[in-house]
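Board notes (copied after class):
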Amino acid sequence: MNKPAWNTMRGGFLGYLLTEARNAVTREIEKELAPLGITSAQFRVVVGIAHERAATLSEFARFLDIDTGAMKRLLDRVEEKGWIRRVRSPNDRRTLILELTETGRAIYPEIMEGVSKVHERMLEGLSPVEETQLQYFLQKITANAER
C-alpha cells in the first residue's frame, strides 16, 4: 500500500497547517489583548460565557478541550480578575454556573474589538468568496471529525 507523502493533505500536512494557523491566531490574539491584561485562554472563557458556548466547569473543559483541573485553575484566574463569578444552579445545588460580572460584560466589547482586528489581519488578501470557502471547508473538516 502506498502511503501519501508527509507534505500532502492526506499525509499529515492537514494537521500541521491547522495547528500552524491556530497557533498564529493565538499568538496574535495574545499580543492584541495584552494591553487589556487578558490571555487568549482567558478571552475564550469570557467570550464562551458571553456567547453561551459553556456554562459550567465541565462544559468549559469539553469546549476548550482541557482537563478539569487545568480548567478550574483557568477559571480561578479569570474570577480573580473580577470578570466572572460562579453561582449555584437553581436546578442542582451541586452545580456552579459561570456568569460574567459587570466588569466582564464591560470588557467584552474591548476583547471582541481586539479579536476582530486580529481576524482582519489574518484574512487580509482573501476575497469575500475565499473567506466563505475557507469557512465552508473548515466546517466540513470539523463535521467529518465528528462523524
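Comment from the instructor: The chain has one domain: 14-145. The domain at 14-145 is CATH 1.10.10.10 (Arc Repressor Mutant, subunit A).
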